[in-house]
Amino acid sequence: MNTTKHGNELAVELSQVSVKYQQLEVFNQLDFTLPQQQITAVVGESGCGKSTLLKLINGLVPPISGSIRLHGHPQTHPFNTTARRGIGYAVQQIGLFPHLSAYENIALLAKLDDWQQQAIEQRVSYLAECMGLPSTLLQRYPHQLSGGQAQRVGLCRSLMVKPRILLLDEAFSAVDPITRKEVHERFLQLHQEEPRAVLLVTHDMREAVKIADNIAVMHEGEIVQHGAVDTVMDQPANDYIARLIKDHI
Ligand SMILES: Nc1ncnc2c1ncn2[C@@H]1O[C@H](COP(=O)(O)OP(=O)(O)OP(=O)(O)O)[C@@H](O)[C@H]1O
């Protein structure tokens, strides 16, 4: 198992990875690591490649060169079921199945994995409680939910089968500010109870500072600084990062 310089095992290790969409080169020989059991926020301006980084890690976008390791295991495309089941993914656009209730959306992967009914019920209740979703709301269909409620259902779904890696792409963005504060706190509590590697894409620098242990700043497809939150905040590596912090905090 590969480790960071602090001795933590790595959940994700990207080595010299290049990605292109047709003619557009998004990453050119990108190196990136995600430690286990810590929360890392990726920040950077629109179009710099944050969502592509998440899609690369969960196998939705193949690299044209370079290597991807998950918990030390090299991955090839398409990722196998074990690798895919080990990654939870929640996105801003939510993507709930419209013909399934909120409960059924959350429970779906566990059912496919043949979990026992009682274990499914317990896990759904636990996650719904964590995310502040009342049980009456779980019987509703996605079109009967507000954007913020649907987003929290998406978060529960991404956590259902206890993935070792959780990828969140603007996953709290539709939640109103007061509820978001509560959801942040509950999310952090859940992280204490079930630590995992979390990679959180956000445009909200305050959210990054509040939730994350580490920040990775991305600029035009490169990681320009990656370190502990306090280090990045106190010692921005260049003027671009200093401005990003100043303008958003
Ligand atoms: N499927 C695609 N086909 C072609 N180009 C794409 C595709 N997806 C993303 N891009 C382009 O790749 C670049 C990186 O996009 P990406 O979505 O990763 O950026 P981002 O940092 O997440 O942006 P935002 O903060 O606006 O969501 C952008 O220039 C985008 O227009």
Give your account of this protein's structure.
The chain has 249 residues and is α/β, with parallel strands linked by helices. The protein has a domain at 96-162. Helices cover 37% and strands 26% of the residues. The protein is built from 9 helices and 10 strands. It has helices at residues 50-57, 81-85, 102-112, 117-130, 147-159, 177-193, 205-211, 229-234, 239-248; strands spanning 10-21, 24-35, 39-43, 65-70, 73-74, 87-91, 165-169, 197-201, 214-219, 222-228. Strands 6-7-8-3-9-10 form a 6-stranded mixed sheet, with helices on both faces. Strands 2-1-4-5 form a 4-stranded antiparallel sheet, covered by helices on one side. A hairpin with a 2-residue loop joins β4 and β5. α3 packs parallel to α5 (147-159). Adenosine-5'-triphosphate binds next to β2 and α1.
Q: Summed up, what is this model?
A:
This protein is an alpha/beta fold and 249 residues long.
Rg from Cα: 18 Å
Helix/strand structural class: alpha/beta
Give the topology string: H per helix, E per strand: EEEHEEHEHHHEHEHEEHH
Strand content: 25-35%
Give the CA-based shape.
Answer: globular
Distance between the termini: 37 Å
Helix content: 25-40%
Q: Characterize the largest beta sheet: strand count, sense, and whether it forms a barrel.
A: 6 strands, mixed
> What is the number of helical segments per DSSP (H or I, 4+ residues)?
9
Using DSSP, what is the number of strands?
10
Low-confidence stretches: none
What topology, given as strand order, has the largest sheet?
6-7-8-3-9-10
Ions, cofactors and other bound molecules: adenosine-5'-triphosphate
The chain-level mean pLDDT equals 93
